[in-house]
Write a sequence for this structure.
């Protein structure tokens, strides 16, 4: 499969380059030249298939031309060693629980898949390959969730070393322990600064010639095709489980969205033939996409901090992919593109006060504990579902990941799953760092 850039100014790429580079030379996002429809027989039999097998079919539709069949199967099975159940919350509203992976959030799947795909290319590439000889170093800046998913996804994958940069004192203790206690090929770097300082250090490192001669650097950014596409597996599984319940005829899929990678993978699934009637993108107070749907104007703004902080994004990267998907490669005018997007996707936006109220009401009414991100998705279905429709929202993180907030809002003591408790018992190890690039560079040059 060939990959082109959403900015249209970069050379066409193959999968290996798209995965290793992440972003195209013109700073656009990579898109596959073709999205093949899956055969009808796959959808006919899907409700009898297990998650791994469904995912393998989807993966092979995307990556089958570029990755050896056995390796791809091994990769998918290794990535999906956990379940992704659909749970009825009330009436016609179901929760798709994406939090049963190693760090209890949906980013686990993309992170692990990307780690294993990168490893595959390291092993396969000859002397010409980008990743041939020597360790590949992944740099990732995090405000919490991404760091834990990437660190755990790459843990123990040989040939790759991960540096997680995080702002000192700005990450919750539960999040911090998920990437500072791992050891092995994971190094946590505690930066005396804010998240933007961490991101600036990573960006400077990628642009520094001396450093790039010294070591092979790559990112594990969520715009990477190997990180966002595998999330499509979730939506095929949701359809399968709903079909098994006899409830798949009029499905509305609702995705709490920040950088729009997750919903974008669902839209790729739709292009592959997944029979979802329509989609809802649920936002917190960062309502840039919601406004776009209303007005047709895309006006990025600095993000504001909310209870659902993994969705605090003021300029969602994957917006460019969504526009590209529905503009027929630029043939449609912006107005036509907007129209085709709004005929399939609607939006919702919730303030922190509404998120709190939703969490309380849902818990009182049904006993189901929502996390602040899932709460946006649930409420968008309560508000937006039409008669005869069945709604499935993504519960993107386990409520225990945001225990301080959830306990406070619901007045309960959320149980911490054993996997998370195990991280908390581990010993924290991190490298203290200033926000001065010269210090970070000197450190990396010694590695
Ligand atoms: C990352 C994240 C989101 C937002 O997903 P996007 O793909 O960035 O839209 C929502 N909820 C949680 C818990 C997350 O970690």
């Amino acid at each position: 499969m060939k990959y082109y850039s959403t900015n249209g100014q970069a050379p066409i790429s193959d999968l290996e380059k798209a995965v290793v580079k992440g972003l195209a030379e013109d700073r656009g996002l990579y898109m596959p030249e073709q999205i093949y429809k899956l055969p009808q027989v796959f959808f006919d039999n899907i409700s009898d298939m297990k998650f791994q097998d469904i995912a393998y079919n989807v993966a092979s539709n995307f990556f089958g031309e570029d990755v050896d069949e056995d390796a791809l199967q091994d990769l998918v099975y290794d990535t999906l060693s956990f379940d992704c159940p659909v749970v009825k919350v009330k009436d016609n509203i179901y929760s798709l629980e994406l939090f049963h992976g190693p760090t209890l959030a949906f980013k686990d799947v993309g992170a692990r898949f990307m780690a294993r795909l990168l490893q595959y290319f390291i092993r396969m590439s000859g002397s010409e390959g980008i990743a041939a000889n020597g360790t590949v170093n992944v740099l990732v800046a995090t405000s919490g969730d991404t760091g834990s998913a990437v660190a755990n996804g790459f843990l123990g994958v040989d040939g790759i070393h991960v540096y997680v940069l995080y702002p000192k004192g700005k990450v919750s203790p539960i999040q911090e322990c998920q990437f500072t206690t791992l050891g092995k090929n994971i190094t946590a770097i505690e930066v005396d600064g804010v998240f933007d300082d961490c991101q600036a250090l990573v960006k400077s490192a990628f642009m520094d010639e001396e450093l790039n001669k010294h070591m092979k650097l790559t990112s594990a950014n969520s715009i990477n095709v190997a990180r966002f596409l595998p999330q499509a597996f979730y939506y095929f599984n949701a359809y399968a489980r709903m079909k098994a319940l006899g409830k798949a005829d009029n499905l509305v899929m609702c995705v709490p969205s920040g950088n729009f990678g997750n919903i974008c993978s669902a839209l790729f699934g739709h292009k592959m033939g997944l029979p979802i009637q329509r989609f809802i993108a649920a936002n917190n107070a960062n309502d840039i996409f919601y406004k776009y749907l209303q007005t047709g104007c895309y006006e990025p703004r600095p993000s504001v901090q909310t209870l659902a902080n993994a969705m605090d994004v003021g300029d969602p990267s994957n917006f460019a992919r969504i526009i590209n998907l529905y503009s027929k490669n630029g043939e449609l005018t912006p107005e036509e593109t907007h129209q085709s997007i709004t005929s399939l996707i609607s939006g919702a936006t919730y303030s922190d006060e509404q998120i709190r109220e939703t969490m309380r009401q849902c818990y009182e009414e049904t006993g189901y504990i929502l996390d602040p991100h899932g709460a946006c998705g649930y409420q968008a279905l309560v508000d937006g579902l039409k008669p005869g429709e069945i709604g499935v929202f993504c519960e993107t993180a386990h409520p225990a990941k945001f225990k301080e907030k959830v306990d406070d809002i619901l007045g309960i003591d959320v149980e911490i799953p054993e996997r998370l408790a195990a991280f908390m018992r581990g010993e924290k190890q991190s490298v203290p760092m200033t926000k001065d690039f010269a210090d970070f560079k000197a450190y990396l040059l010694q590695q």
Notes: The CA atoms of residues 11 and 226 lie 19 Å apart. The radius of gyration is 21 Å.
